[in-house]
Amino acid sequence: MKKIINFVKDFWLVILGFIVLYAIAFFIFDHFFVQIVSTLVIGSLVLAIIYIFIAIINFL
Predict the structure, then answer these.
(1) Which listed residue, 9, 21, 42, 56, has the most CB atoms within 10 A of its CB?
(2) SS3 at position 60
(3) Predicted TM-score of the model (pTM)
(4) How far apart are CA 49 and CA 55, in angstroms?
């Protein structure tokens, strides 16, 4: 159970980090840069979802 809680905490920290980076990029840089960042964020979220599925399978 402790492993699951630590995993969830780490996961939310990663998500918050991406949101913060995205917000900073949006305000500081132009739209071209934001498009690159949003592509990276979407790619990272897809990887995070895959990571969750792997973690759930490992816990089962």
Answers:
(1) 21
(2) coil
(3) 0.41
(4) 10
Q: Cα Rg for the chain, rounded, in angstroms? A: 14
Q: Is there a contact between 15 and 48 (Cβ–Cβ < 8 Å)?
A: yes
Q: What is the pLDDT of residue 1?
A: 63
Structure token digits, residue 31: 């739209």
Domain spans, the chain: 2-59
pLDDT in tens, 39-56: 888 888 888 888 888 888
Q: Read out DSSP for 13-56? A: HHHHHHHHHHHHHHHHS-HHHHHHHHHHHHHHHHHHHHHHHHHH
Of residues 35, 48, 45, the one with CA closest to residue 8: 48
